[in-house]
Amino acid sequence: MRYPLEAEYALVDSCINGSKNMVSTSWYESKRELCLCALGKTTEDISYSTYQSDQNAFVSAFKQNTKGCS
Description:
- With 70 residues, the chain is mainly alpha-helical.
- Helices cover 77% and strands 0% of the residues.
- The mean pLDDT is 90.
């Protein structure tokens, strides 16, 4: 089940823009793909209600899933 669009957008935006430094377009696109992949895998494992009640579990799963997306 998908998360609300606003939540998905905020999560991907936060992932991509964690650094406020200027970056190249290719770096941005690569990071965007990594973030989208990790979000997709994480939302399969962590329900939206779990995300709302236990964001630490979400962050832990998200970080782990980024390793599988590189």
